[in-house]
Description:
mainly alpha
Amino acid sequence: MKKFNKYENKFNIIGAKIKDIRKKEKITQDDLCARMQVLGYQINRSDISKIENCNKFIADFEVLGFAKALNKSILDLYDLNK
């Protein structure tokens, strides 16, 4: 069984930013899911919801996929002002 560490009781630190960017760009979770799948990532809408709510671990290569799918830099997905 996989065991993931948590940071401040979250499985990832970029989910909220993904959600924020997605909503500002008026992209639905289904649209983001489709973009990710076109890029070759096996992800579904439910996974995106869990990631955005910081309830699912996200691998580094998936961070790259989200950045590409949202037309953003990887650094845009991290809140570096904390």
